[in-house]
Amino acid sequence: MSALAIAPTFLSDFSHLTPDLQLDTLAVMRACQAGERPELEPVADAADPHVRVVSISPDWSGVVVPEARDGECPEDAAPGARYRLLTVRPRDEALRFARDLRPEAPAADPRPSGPPELAGALGAPFRQWQVTLHPDQHRITEAHYNGAVQITGGPGTGKTVIALHRAAHLARRDAADRPDDLRESVLLTTYNRALAQSLAERLDQLLPDPGVRARVRVSTIDSLARSVVQAHSSLPPRMVGRDELARRWRALALADGLPFSGRFLVDEWEQVILAKDLELLPQYIRCERSGRVQHLAPEHRRQVWETVRRYVGAMRVEGLWSYPQLAAEAARVLRRGAPLFRHAVVDEAQDLHPAQWRMLRAAVPEGPDDLFIVGDPHQRVSDNRVSLASLGINVRGRGQRLRVSYRVTQEILDWSMRVLRRPALGMDDNADTLAGYRSLLRGPEPVVRGCADRAEELTALGDWVRVWLEAGVEPEEIAVAGRNQWVVRGIAKELEARGIRTAPLEDAGRTGSVRIGTMHRLKGREFRCVALVGVSDHLLPPKAAIEAAEGDQVALEHVLQQERTLLFVACTRARDALYVSHVGRPSRLITADG
């Protein structure tokens, strides 16, 4: 640790300094970290005799105090003594501030300000904060519903915490009502493994009784489908992702001389044929292909249908499955047998495929408190479009929109919402808007840092992470992400070279390490501080995604909106502070003309 650290209260001031002054301040801190002692100037007539000023630039000075006040003067302190930088101001203003400063202990670490009902929770360890439910939301998690219910809301409104508390409530109620029936009765499911692992760990906190906890199965939607199909098959399914499938089908389409790309065929299969559960060619010819960019005449649909049917048949011979296909098969298996659960709680619901919803509908019998659905259409990172009503899931009269955020500061929300540009399509074919959305928390403005080259960007990142650590933020409460693995590798090298331990974003259990990964891995997670690196126009949106649109303006806008959503989700994973950096021209997604 350096001889000069920053006080937690300085984070907000630091974010408002000009980039040049930020660099000057960090240069002083780096020199101290390298072993150089800062030249501290006493302040005449100061109320606190220990206060000093340190030169930051010719016209600006910082105000510092010793970290441990034991009656000795700073110049007589031990060589290893540490000082805290309280503020950086124009020299005359810094001297006035220093003279008026009263001796008092600085805050333990930086926290956003919030209403009185959240004061205790904001001051608690972050692990406890992650399961803290807003007092006004207990009624949502403990209510009795006559059927399925849908809770939607923007980032920070507590949807995931609501889902956790709802699952815990249903498990406790089930244990009280059916003490002799010990089977898993509640399914808590979500979009990917990292989220499921995080949910399981937090649910352990809420349900310390092993008997009650055992009534909840936490599983990804794909793992549920795999377990259902595998239980009724002699061989475990071999999965193939969309990208690999598109490559396979592209080669086949070229060999067959077809005028369709592999990506188009895979999307048509998953987003139309499987999504609408079409089994016959006439159904496909008649169907509305909502959301699909390329028009298909009836004669072309016949050709696509036959091609997809042949390619899927070849997959079955190889024993290969796509994830939506596996969910469709699981739904068929479940409809022939008994339901698996009495209740299901669905997190990140906006990203589920219609086939996965059919599987859930078959896994839980229709009735009171059957499906509890939480999500935000503005955070949809998949191509899936769903109408719950068309899938036999009726939430009419049992939906609620959360418009108050208490897990992300207003400053981060204001900056992030400008990225989105337009409303999203809800889960019942209705437009979903963030109008009237606000936060109860206040904190520093997000920092956007432009750099001349990648080396400067990584150096600036390392400086900024060090600022957070020096201010008292625990390493595991910090996340750093890039759009691709190339950026992430650079992040890891820079932080590790500075002696800052790192761990993958999905490694939720390891303490003492800053979390790093791609922006996609941030989905559904929560951190105190988030840094996004490489938000440059040549990296975001990716060149490959733009080229895939092949000049089609509608397809290009679809690509850009997906990237906006991804960036929006990544930015709003930060509760306290957000840092964004780029090399050269910033991404068009964060500029006014983008």
Automatic annotation (TrEMBL):
Domain of life of the source: Bacteria
Keyword annotations from UniProtKB, A to Z: ATP-binding, Helicase, Hydrolase, Isomerase, Nucleotide-binding
Residues annotated for ATP binding in this entry: 153-160
Reaction(s) catalysed (UniProt annotation): Couples ATP hydrolysis with the unwinding of duplex DNA by translocating in the 3'-5' direction; ATP + H2O = ADP + phosphate + H(+)
Coiled coil spans: none
Leader sequence segment: none
GO term, biological process aspect, one: recombinational repair
Sequence ranges assigned to domain UvrD-like helicase ATP-binding in this UniProt record: 132-420
InterPro entries in UniProt: DNA_helicase_UvrD-like_C, DNA_helicase_UvrD/REP, P-loop_NTPase, UvrD-like_ATP-bd
Hydrolase keyword on record: yes
EC number: 5.6.2.4
Gene Ontology molecular-function annotations: 3'-5' DNA helicase activity; ATP binding; DNA binding; hydrolase activity
Region (Disordered), start-end ranges: 102-121
PROSITE patterns, per database record: UVRD_HELICASE_ATP_BIND
Full protein name: DNA 3'-5' helicase
Organism of derivation: Nocardiopsis algeriensis
